[in-house]
Amino acid sequence: MNNSTSNYNGLKAHSSYRMKMKMTRRRRQRQRQRQVGGRGGRRSTVQVKVKKLQMLIPGGRGLKADRLFLQTADYILQLRLQVNVLQALSKIYKL
Q: Percent of the chain having pLDDT more than 90?
């Protein structure tokens, strides 16, 4: 009976190992497809980054990339101005 239990555990471990290897193989294939895609692969990663940027910038959703970059530059300048104003206020009030 002890032998059958060890065989069962061995089969179970073997099948989980095979499943893990299949998943690893699929992951590698997806990565290769993204890399081999050449320009298309790069474009998809750029598109993902543009989507993330659209979520970060107020009013950025729905903007095309060129307008989004201009909006991003304006937003960065606005944030810098706010930091400068807050620093000046903290010096005045010695905070």
A: 47
